[in-house]
Amino acid sequence: MVGEKPNVASKLAQALGNYSIEENHGVKNYIVETDDEKIIIAPAVGHIFNLEQTSEGWDYPVFEVDWAPTFETSDSADYMKKYYRNLRDQCEKADEYINACDFDLEGSVIGDRVIKELGTTDESRIRRMKFSTLTPSDLEEAFDNLEDFDKGMTEAGLTRHILDFYYGINVSRALMQAVRENDRYKTLSTGRVQGPALNFLAEREREIQEFEPDPYWEIFLHNSEFRAKFHDDGDERIWEEEVADGIFSEIEGEDEAEVSNIKINNYSHKPPVPFNLTGLQKEASSQFNINPKTTQSIAQDLYEDSLISYPRTESQKLPPKIGYKNILNKLKNQENYTEKAKKVLKKDKSDNLYTKQGKKEDDAHPAIYPTGQNPGNLSKNERKVYDLIVKRFFAVFGKPAKRQSLTMTLEVNGYTFNAKSKVTKKRNWFDLYDPYVKVEEAELPELEEGEKLPVDEFEQAEKETQPPRRFSQTSIVSELEKRNLGTKATRAQVVDRLYDREFIKDDPIVVTDLGLTIAETLEEYSPEIVSEELTREFEERMESIKNQEESKEEALERARDELGETLRNFKEQEKEIGAKLVRAIDKYRDQKRKLGPCDRDDCDGTLQIIRTDNGRFVGCTEYDDCENTYPLPNNGEVTSQGEICDECGTPKIHVSRKSGNNYEMCIDPDCSTKDDW
DNA sequence: GCAAGGTC
Fold it and tell me: Which SMART domains match (predicted)?
């Protein structure tokens, strides 16, 4: 019996009854023996097999692919070796095989590859276990009702892999080949998820670049305790200057306003929902400015240390069977959390604890929660993310906070102004989530309708409309989630790859010229790859393969035809496409080497990184007239900090090393900021 | 040197 991962293998064993453990290559196998059979439950670790090209060379199109052990095709998959070897040993012993991986396309592929590559290709000897949660009762029932080999799902899953390979590898190669035709080299990539992700970002970037702001005016009434804003039937913005001037001249000099209306609204502010991975990533980004990929890897570490539950979950639900009380009692023993844990436990003495639940579900895992186990030494960021997870766990038990909003309408010469306030009357769950509650608290003086109020002054402010907001690393991950592109485990990685390729930079995200040019090129020559429709189409095809209405080979044949046409067209215009890409690459590289203005008084040049055979240094663009130079560190990537040193006036740089040892400094080695270096 | 999807 093959489980999707070590944890699940253990759960399968627990559900099946008495078991013993046999270790092989450092991997735990679970042995369950009955009167007439012996079951070995062995874990995979996700995709133990992966696609690789079987033909030679880097040309495209490439359509010849086959499955190979992942540790052989990927440098970072060394840890899979022992699992692979164990599966090989266990598969040799078996007469029959059960695929007990997650019941979805990927699970079907994971189990199928292990069994077919290492066990048997005889499908009559393969069974499929179908379960939707990992509870013992579900697993037991699934085991008692083993189904035949799931040909449809497996074929659909295998096809999904191959189609993604076809589209991703080939179009990526086409881009790189185009650049190489122009005698340059740059790693470029795109794919079914990367493509649309870049496209959303590029569309937004163009909207921002093309945005033309409209001016408008606002008028404020200032009192010693608050300010109120002019509005005309709810509209606070005045679009013509003459109109604003007119109103202003009629109220200017008035020193009193009358309270014409007070509206009080009491409302509940509900507690948040339990964290799924995206929710945690969003909150870690807004609270600590930690990017989604880092949060994911921190969460994985915390999970491996048994401090939190499985983090790669879509679920926003915390079922009672996780044992609320037990976890809360353990948290109570942690110094930092004693008070909050007590508060939650006190809430209901009758054991009827319940939590707020979100809408999203996940078949395999509940929402993220702390196990209660006492953490040892955590890094600074680990501590932050852990604290956030614990406090969110407390918060979901809380009662809604009681809030009150107050809108006060003031009148001056027939013109109306609004002052608004929001205050918390009862904190409830706010106390459990401190210090992560972010709500507005602004109080207004207690006044009554008809009362007169002194005015300090009126203010007329000119403003302008703002361009659309940029995506952040987090909001683009949410956007992908909303559109069902990628999965919980891959979205942050996809965004990270766009940074690696230099298609995007900074956060909030700015699309580079290279990114814009790539998006434009793909839109023109391979529009399917930047369209989210490709994913929808894949989903439909997988559905029909699953139902055995279409065969894997038919689907692949069709993709080879369609993609082949696109790629031929691309290839014909390779040189021009490449020239355009090269211009964008050069422009970006040129921008990247510019560090800041030359610090010589009489020089208007720009200091930039100069590379030589022996290394690199900083020189001035006006090097005919200006001999200003500075040394640079030999190792690490140097980028401009976009700032000038207060002490010496030279540009500040950011040095990032592969070791993860990053630092900032100005480029003058004699600057007093380095006195104690 | 290229994807997307699992996972440690």
Answer: TOP1Ac (SM00437), TOP1Bc (SM00436), TOPRIM (SM00493)
Specify the pLDDT at position A114.
Answer: 98
Whether A396 contacts A318, CB under 8 Å: yes
Residue A670's pLDDT is 87
pLDDT tens digits, one per residue of A198-247: 999 999 999 999 999 999 999 999 998 899 999 998 899 999 999 999 99
Average pLDDT over residues A29-46: 95
Instruction: Judge whether A310 counts as a catalytic residue.
Output: yes
- Return the H-helix or E-strand segment holding A410: strand A401-412
Q: Which nucleotide lies at the shortest CA–C1' distance from A312? A: B7
To the nearest 10°, report the CA torsion of A647, A650, A654, A657.
-100
Determine whether the distance from the CB of A79 to the nearest atom of strand B is below 7 Å.
yes
List all residues 6 or more positions away from A208 whose beta carbon is below 8 Å from its beta carbon. Answer: A467, A468, A470
Which position has the token pair 């006195």?
A675
Is residue A308 a contact partner of residue A369, using CB atoms and an 8 Å limit?
Answer: yes
Strands (E), A101-214: 126-128, 147-148
Residue with tokens 């077919």: A116
User: Which residue is closest to B2 in terms of CA–C1' distance?
Assistant: A169
Nucleotides of B under 7 A from a protein CB: 1-8
Nucleotide B3 C1' to residue A74 CA (A): 13
Q: Is the pLDDT of residue A471 over 70?
A: yes
Nucleotide nearest to A497 (CA to C1'): B3
A68 touches strand B (CB under 7 A): no
